[in-house]
What we know:
By secondary structure, the chain is an alpha/beta fold. The chain is built from 16 helices and 16 strands. The protein folds into 2 domains: about 25-50 and about 315-455, Aspartate Aminotransferase, domain 1 (Alpha-Beta Complex), CATH 3.90.1150.10; about 60-310, Type I PLP-dependent aspartate aminotransferase-like (Major domain) (Aspartate Aminotransferase, domain 2), CATH 3.40.640. The chain starts with about 20 loop residues before the first helix and ends with a strand. Ligand F0G binds near residues 128, 183, 218 and 256.
Amino acid sequence: MEFKTIIEPFKIKSVESIKMSTESERVEFLKAAHFNTFLLKSDQVIIDFLTDSGTSAMSNEQWAGIMRGDESYAGAKSWERFYNAVHDLTGFEYILPTHQGRAGERILYGHLGGKGKVFISNTHFDTTRANIEFGGATAYDVQIDEAKYHDVYHPFKGNLDCIKLEKLIIEHGAENIGAVILTVTNNSGGGQPVSMQNAKDVAAVCKKYNVLFILDCCRIAENSYFIKHREKEYENHTYKQIAQEMFALTDGCVMSAKKDALVNMGGFIALKDEKIAEACTNLLIITEGFSTYGGLSGRDMEAIAIGLVEVFDKDYLYYRIKSTEYLGNKMREKGIPVMFPIGGHAVYIDSAKMYEHIPLNEYPGQALVCELYRIGGIRSVEVGSVMFGKYDENGELIPAAMELVRLAIPRRVYTQSHIDYVVEVFDELIKNKANVRGYKITKEPKLLRHFTAHFEQL
Ligand code: F0G
């Protein structure tokens, strides 16, 4: 018998209070934050869905590990435990600890990239693309076509299009490809999973042209859940075996441990090739730290080592994926245009569909982000023209490809009643849909404007 209620497979030992607020207070908070939810204080937020990164609740075992942390500069016991955990999961011999994902990206893609080099991915995450482009190389995204349609079902919408991949390799010459990067799950593409078959196909293309194959594996456990339940031949594998099989197809990985390692800070690079590892270790020592701690404290390495085991627990993964799906499906039932099927770590809303009366240059995504906060104190993030929009020579907005709003769910933090509350907020949001107005930007920096821009309601 399977019950309807998804109970959290943990008891709560320590709590962090949430400060409640009224709608009129939130209207004032929003004004003071210039209608940019990045500028709110966290205690002005009731449910924080800004990101799933670094926001996990650690377990009692992880906190115990924190106390065990060996802070020796070289050869610490914590390094050994960290190395063994990462090695056991990934199979790679060379492991470089970094303070978070993007530090690993800068080191690895800085080494592999440079002017004239090309990187190809299902979708490069923003920081991945930024690190590649900063070094002078070019980044191409080649997702399967199904990914473009928000409401079309495909079990693995995160898949990389291997035909486009091969074309790009031929066009640019295999010797100019820095790496092929498979992002699992595909965060910028809606948190959608990548199938094992797709990873095998990508590996085959990379092998044919002798091109390096790297996994951006920060949500590998969530991806493994989807493979077990959607790819027939993996139904009897454990989640960890599935992840191990995927790592075995690649030449290395970069991980932001702030996601599926269930910690608040950390990351690593893991590699098969000794020469690349040596070059990266030299860069690691310059800016992160000595090779047996890199960018991490001993206690951080302990917490990551434990988190990497806990995240593959079947009860945890069931709860994680089912509760994200629960929220997404409830919203979909109410007619909210969500990316479908629901991804692993977040629910994405097509705000241009939601507010068809708001033109793209009045930022329907920002309007939705502000509405969610005003009505329910829910903090989300715009992933549309505020984040990715550019201006043409006349100062007109060139909109982003999609006007998404992401509700990213922190791991092990909220219970089903929090989620039910969010669902209820959407009822109010729908009632007020026609009255919602767009926004104009009154102040913006040159780069990464979404973090600090000021808005005014039209
Ligand atoms: N790769 C992916 C797929 C990511 O989602 C992120 C971070 C990174 C790399 C970079 O890792 O933050 O540790 O430096 N994503 C966060 C988010 C910021 O909100 O989705 P980092």
